[in-house]
Automatic annotation (TrEMBL), chains A, B:
Gene Ontology molecular-function annotations: DNA-binding transcription factor activity
Gene3D superfamilies named in the record: Winged helix-like DNA-binding domain superfamily/Winged helix DNA-binding domain
GO terms, biological process: response to stress
Name the UniProt record assigns to this protein: HTH marR-type domain-containing protein
Highest taxon, organism lineage: Bacteria
Residues covered by the HTH marR-type domain: 2-133
PANTHER family on file: TRANSCRIPTIONAL REGULATOR, TRANSCRIPTIONAL REGULATOR, MARR FAMILY
Length: 140, 140
DNA sequence: GGCATATGATTCGGTCGCCGAATGATATGG
DNA sequence: CCATATCATTCGGCGACCGAATCATATGCC
């Protein structure tokens, strides 16, 4: 059991999130917000698009955006072409926050991968990416 | 961000757990119970020992054990040497359940690793184990 | 031996993140 | 112009977890 990849992934993933959350806390962010900032860095998206991409329901997105709006990291803009939709766009503050989270994520990686060789780390990254893509477990 | 190992681990781990939970549901179990069954297969343990090993508080262990007791998978036995402690031991039913969960975990792995070569899978298992050990993220 | 203090299990209340159903506004097709 | 669909939002609830309080038992100290 403890030697299955599934178990290790599950437990490690959980712990990694906790650790990352600790790093993020000073910014007033939690891990889930990072994916949002990341996605928005490619350009504005509607809330339902965000929900799909992240893999949560629309109501969860509302909450996350409320929080990000509080931090002045995003803006909701009514889509002129379809006034039901809110287009979410990054503010300059949001862009700045995204850079910081990126840096924290890399810091996190360094700590996580300190015990293994760079080659092994690269292989790991590659393998995880393959699995994620193959199993469709991470929305692309 | 989405290319950091930490992010991939976190997201994948989460999803893997959800998937595993689905397989487990017919047995009336959830992922967290598996660790308990696994730990107990090595012999009886007190509840606080379980809590430490799993990384949750004592009150959570109480709940989990209540559920496992309901399924007749475990028994609570007062420690004669220290009557405050409950020694938790697997029943025959518990042992059987453990075998089933193990088989499900392996099935889960097969599906997860279908996209990569056996060699790559072995490397992955090895690397994850190293990281878990080095970072102390998984209680041993 | 008797008492203060520590420790194990348990209960209880609260928090957090998530979901699903209901709602209101807007769009779209007949 | 109305029926129906879709987007964002609100609301109630659930499951997993924590921390404080409680009760029984153990242990150290006088």
């Amino acid at each position: 059991m403890t030697d299955t990849v599934g178990f290790l992934l599950g437990k490690l993933g959980q712990q990694v999130n906790v650790r990352f959350a600790g790093r993020l806390a000073p910014l007033g962010l939690r891990p889930r917000h990072c994916a949002v900032l990341e996605l928005l860095s490619g350009g504005p998206l509607a809330q339902l698009e965000l929900a799909k991409a992240i893999g949560v329901t629309a109501s969860v997105v509302v909450d996350m955006l409320d929080e990000l709006e509080q931090l002045d990291a995003i803006r909701r803009v009514r889509d002129a072409a379809d006034r039901r939709r809110q287009l979410i766009e990054l503010t300059p503050t949001g862009r700045e926050l995204r850079h910081q989270t990126l840096s924290l994520a890399r810091q996190n990686d360094e700590e996580l991968l300190a015990a293994i060789s760079p080659a092994e780390a690269a292989a790991l990254r590659h393998t995880l990416g393959r699995i994620a893509a193959a199993t469709g477990l991470i929305a692309k």
